[in-house]
Amino acid sequence: MTELLTRAQYEQIASKLTFPSKAIIDGRSVEAKSGRTFATTNPATGEKLADLPACGPEDVDAAVASARQSFAGWAKQHPAVRKQALLRLAQLIEDNLVELSVMESLDSGKTILDCQTVDVPETVNCLRWHAEAIDKIYDQVSPASNDHIALVVREPVGVVGLVLPWNFPLLMLAWKIGPALAAGCSLVVKPAAETSLTALRVAELALDAGIPAGVFNVVTGSGSQVGEPIGRHMDVDAVSFTGSTETGRRFLNYSSESNLKEVVLEMGGKNPSIVMDDADDLDAVAAHIVNGAYWNMGENCSAISRLIVHSAVKGKLLDKIVAEVKNWHVGDPLDPDNRVGPLVSEAHYRKVASYLGDGVKVLHGGETSKGRFVHPTIVEVESNAARHAKEEIFGPILTVITVDSLKEAVAIANETEYGLTASVFTGNGKRAMRAARALRAGTVTVNSFGEGDITTPFGGYRQSGFGGRDNSVHAHDQYTQLKTIWLDLNDDETADF
Ligand code: NAP
Ligand code: MG
Questions:
Q1: Taking a C-beta distance cutoff of 8 angstroms, is the pair 71, 185 a contact?
Q2: Ligand 1 pocket test: which of 244, 343, 464 has the largest number of ligand atoms within 8 Å of its C-beta?
Q3: Predicted model pTM
Q4: 299 CA from centroid of ligand 2 (Å)
Q5: Residues labelled as active-site residues
Q6: In a 10 Å sphere around its CB, with 0-12 CB exposed, 13-18 middle and 19+ buried, how is residue 239 labelled?
Q7: 430 FRET partner, CA 20 to 30 A, in 74, 293, 375, 476?
Q8: What are the backbone angles phi and psi of residue 208, rounded to the nearest 5°?
Q9: 425 close to 314: Cβ distance less than 8 angstroms
Q10: Please, what are the domains in the chain?
């Protein structure tokens, strides 16, 4: 791992960074056809970092046409050729790890600590993993009779739209471009308007890595002007989306009202963490809960958002959580000592801060500070019906609910419209396994908080997910379709052998 630098060193790098300022369409850096731009800013200071093209439907058309044209050649390459190109891209990202970390931190408010130790290294790891997988995945021969051969082959789905959120700009890009490029698809990427810089930089690096022009387009702009035209495009074969449940739903409408493109949605969560009275090592539990709740400012679809704790250990656990939270310093994201930066935008800050008013019972924190900072906060509610227990806050606010049995805890955990992740802490292996089976979520962790890793599928049950999974070889299903090739071997001369 590259060593962390000092705040002064990061500031020095930041002062010298050149930000991308054009969209990437057909291998070229271009303005929006309309000539319009929008500013991307640094959430920590409100300062403008760059003006970016405010693209529209006509730019989406150009990107889709270029993706379509490049698709045939890219899809026909030997998988090992695409593997080498992706490996070169991963290497270029690693070579630029510090610069990309600083760019990501400046554009999103994410801490440099997370960018440099998680987001960028995991991006590299993800691309390498899918690159290495693609020339090791075999197609199938079906159990047909001696008179036939039936092949079940995977083909790349075609031109794919990738619509991304602002909370992990680079890593969500990697989760999608890794399997999509490996599979042989051509891409039209729409990064979140607030955080487009690193996607543009990676698309530049992709050209340097030898990924052909038109295979990896990045179209910057708003959801309505770029996201919707991608969703409704008649020549886009599939869309993979990560973002809110509200926007995800729209993509199903766009698809049904256009060409029935395939749609995969990764969306919100209201993730429960159950801590029972027989949990081992409450210090370790507290560390997991704090990490799960406050990592990335809680701007995390898999964040622990509801702590469902047994009454017998509640007081002791909360004391340990409060002690642990004190190590999570709030402030300038370019200071590697800080673990909580500003929220991504003024609008999002106002939304999160609205959960601190209304006579809510605050057990810890509850403060905000200038520059869109919300300090790690714990609130307690009487029941799971309370607003704080139902709505996705997407900020550093943990809601505590008290229970007296595992059965009650699991019932409350499942009482949500979401189902992305869940965790359970108990020293009893049988109960842990029973709870893991009963919890309705795409990922359940036992005695830990996490999302699995690149080898395990990630996605949600119920209104957290639709249509497929990111990560692992299962992610390739999003970007491929199955074809049956049926060969009849009947022939007069050979019929008898
Ligand atoms: P969002 O508002 O749904 O935006 C996601 C993307 O969709 C952005 O690129 C956005 O464009 C675009 N978009 C917005 N409105 C659109 C429309 N009408 N038509 C087409 N595209 C549109 O979500 P967000 O606020 O960026 O991200 C936070 C949410 O994402 C949270 O709810 C979180 O739970 C979820 N999330 C889920 C996962 C997961 O894997 N399940 C991971 C991360 C985040 P703009 O740039 O213009 O906003
Ligand atoms: Mg920004």
A1: yes
A2: 244
A3: 0.97
A4: 15
A5: 266, 301
A6: buried
A7: 293
A8: -60, -30
A9: no
A10: 7-267+463-483 (3.40.605.10), 271-446 (3.40.309.10)
